[in-house]
Write a structure and sequence with these properties.
This protein has 661 residues and is of the alpha/beta class. It has three domains: 159 residues, Beta-Lactamase (2-Layer Sandwich), CATH 3.30.450; 150 residues, Reverse transcriptase/Diguanylate cyclase domain (Alpha-Beta Plaits); 249 residues, EAL domain (TIM Barrel), CATH 3.20.20. Helix content is 54%, strand content 18%. The chain has 23 helices and 19 strands. It is rod-shaped.
Length: 661
């Protein structure tokens, strides 16, 4: 029970006691007053009536005496009037036995009024002419008492109602700061460390609010310090100090993670850009001018990233720059390369040092290509460009894959578009999963993986997702997977199967669509009982590509018992800035971070700091792509919350699939 209700109940009971007590005192006083009035009225009537009928008794005129007594009795205030002669004979007798029917029986039972009986002597000179007996009527007294009780009750009830309404409003006003403190505490649990602006005037409540504000500031500062530490170490480890671009370690790590993804065959172009004879230029121009040249070239690469938000750019070493453009056609990639070379030749420093030469090599792979050959082919293309003359560039195609499902089937791009469209319409998707476990090997959730059945072959996502992206069908596929997972959970529940928590991946390109999040929320609203058994995953790039959509989805899921997981988390500066404000369920470290941590124990400190940040925000930190026990041992030493990878199980179909799923 809330404090407000407890206080309201105390006030209600207090008012009720006051009502009962006041009403009781009033009834007692009223009873005493009415009892006294009964006695006084009976005594006065008896004496005055005795004096009035004394002449009639002296003259032995009983008719006159009867008339006078009857007149008094008919007034209705007396129950009995008797006239008795000196010998004890009753000369006149009047009596009625009616009850006070308008008075509750409980009142007559608990409040007793004694009848007032007065006996007086009628004198005729010095002789006794008779005796007059007058008994008051309690029915009228009870009616008067009941009327007074009702009036008192109505008055006290009105006052109690007024006091109750006033107390309710006053308590609402006085306890409003407590409600704000409660909301502040709930917000702190949701990782929102705001402060209460309006301080209450009540001293005790003001102190409570001030204490909570201090705690909120300290928690916000603590999380901020941890994030700044992570950003600092991340900047030191992965950012080039001269250009501000990612360094070779960061680029190789991210590219290696993309190429190692078994669920998505990477395709695109890789460009290596080189400033020729940079060491000689450095000696001739001076270090400052050489650094300016590097910064100007880095600016051209940043412009490239503005046009291609998912591109990876870095300064590899010395005067070598590199860019990876995923999901781009060869013609578009060659246009980017030519534009880069043209913009390099127009750098401001070339006006003062016209003999600076630039070379670039590019390798390209399509969905049938071999991504692992991108880097060596680009290096070979760079050497060929240098052999080609001034400001040269060269393009090489990565070797084709001989055993990929797409190559085996041998369809062209247009044929694939038609066939994929038909396959998606006929619902030829299969659901597989990989388990994510905690440190005790207990299941945390199952990450849903998608397979496509075509010509009796089960194709992994790496085979068809690049085509889905090339055709712009990411949101279409996401909606199909969500519907299929919901259908599975509904039927599994209907069959009495245990409901595991299933995690669904969402494409960052889907989140960029204005209506996608609204449509997704509207769909899962139809099955609110399944929300505790659902998670949604987005890659770290989605935090940059669609920050508002991610924030909206994360907040809605957190408010409704589900959660959002950030996958492939590599601690980019842009995503670290959002980490302090997003209500996330978990972070999944990128596979490259897991591998690098095993090879570089010095990185444990940075990841340990990230773990503290995640736990301070009530998030889990999970290791992805754990393949070897040595990697898991390092993760356990780091005290991460769980892991996922081939060490715990390869992708497998969901068990107990209902018919049609």
């Amino acid at each position: 029970m809330t404090l407000f209700r407890q206080l309201l109940m105390v006030l209600f009971l207090t008012c009720l006691l006051l009502l009962v007590g006041g009403l009781g005192v009033s009834v007692v006083n009223s009873r005493a007053y009415i009892q006294e009035q009964l006695s006084v009225s009976a005594q006065n009537t008896a004496h005055s009536l005795a004096l009035s009928i004394a002449p009639a008794m002296t003259q032995h005129d009983p008719v006159l005496a009867d008339t006078m007594i009857r007149a008094v009795f008919d007034q209705g205030y007396y129950r009995r009037i008797d006239l008795v002669d000196p010998q004890g004979k009753i000369l006149v007798h009047y009596e009625h036995t009616h009850q006070a029917n308008l008075v509750p029986a409980v009142l007559r039972h608990w409040i007793h009024l004694s009848p007032a009986i007065v006996t007086t002597t009628i004198n005729a000179g010095w002789l006794v002419a008779g005796t007059l007996v007058v008994e008051s009527d309690r029915s009228r007294a009870y009616q008067n008492l009941w009327r007074m009780v009702r009036q008192e009750f109505d008055l006290f009830a009105s006052v109690m109602l007024f006091v109750g309404v006033l107390s309710y409003a006053a308590l609402r006003f006085l306890t409003r700061p407590l409600a704000e403190v409660e909301a502040q505490a709930e917000a702190m649990y949701r990782r929102d460390f705001h402060e209460i602006k309006h301080l209450p005037r009540t001293r005790e409540l003001r102190r409570v609010v001030l204490a909570m504000n201090r705690m909120s500031r300290q928690m916000r500062a603590l999380v901020g310090d941890l994030l700044r530490q992570v950003e600092f170490f991340q900047h030191q480890a992965y950012v080039d100090v001269v250009t501000g671009l990612a360094n070779q370690a960061a680029f190789d790590s991210e590219l290696g993670s993309l190429l190692a993804d078994t669920e998505k065959r990477m395709h695109g172009a890789l460009i290596i850009f080189q400033i020729d004879a940079f060491s000689e230029l450095n000696a001739r121009m001076g270090r400052d001018a050489a650094d300016q040249l590097l910064i100007q070239v880095a600016g051209r690469f940043l412009k490239l990233q503005e046009d291609h938000s998912d591109a990876l750019i870095a300064r590899r070493q010395g005067a070598d720059f590199v860019a990876f453009l995923p999901n781009i056609s060869r013609d578009s990639a060659e246009k980017v390369l030519n534009s880069l070379m043209a913009s390099a030749r127009e750098l401001p420093i070339t006006r003062t040092v016209p003999d600076i030469m630039f070379y670039a090599g590019m390798s390209y792979t399509d969905v049938n290509g071999e991504p692992a050959q991108l880097l060596p082919k680009a290096s070979l293309a760079l050497r060929l460009a240098r052999d080609g003359g001034v400001h040269g560039s060269h393009v090489l195609q990565a070797d084709a894959v001989n055993d990929g499902a797409l190559a085996v089937l041998g369809y062209g791009l247009e044929v694939w578009k038609v066939r994929l469209d038909a396959l998606l319409q006929s619902d030829q998707l299969q659901l597989h999963y990989m388990p994510c476990v905690d440190l005790e090997n207990r299941l945390l959730h199952k990450e849903v993986l998608v397979r496509l059945v075509i010509e009796d072959q089960v194709m992994a996502a790496a085979s068809f997702i690049p085509l889905i992206e090339q055709f712009g069908w990411e949101s279409r596929l996401d909606h199909l997977v969500v519907d299929k997972v919901l259908h599975y959970q509904i039927h599994a529940a209907a069959l009495g199967l245990p409901l595991d928590c299933l995690s669904i991946n969402l494409s960052p390109y889907s989140l960029r669509l204005p209506s996608f999040v609204d449509a997704l929320i509207a769909r899962i609203k139809q099955v609110p009982g399944l929300l505790p058994h659902l998670l949604f995953e987005v890659s770290e790039s989605a935090l940059v590509l669609a920050p508002q959509a991610v924030r909206c989805l994360a907040q809605w899921l957190d408010d409704h018992g589900s959660g959002l997981v950030v996958d492939r988390f590599m601690m980019r500066q842009s995503s670290l800035a959002m980490l302090g404000t997003l209500p996330l369920r978990a972070l999944k470290m990128d596979a490259a971070m897991v591998r690098d941590t095993e090879k570089n124990p010095d990185q444990l400190f940075m990841l340990s700091t990230l773990l503290h940040v995640a736990h301070s925000r009530d998030m889990l930190l999970l290791a992805d792509s754990v393949e070897f026990s040595t990697q898991w041992k390092v993760m356990r030493q780091l005290h991460v919350d769980g892991g996922q990878g081939f060490l715990f199980g390869k992708p497998r179909p969901l068990e107990g699939l209902p018919e049609g799923v």
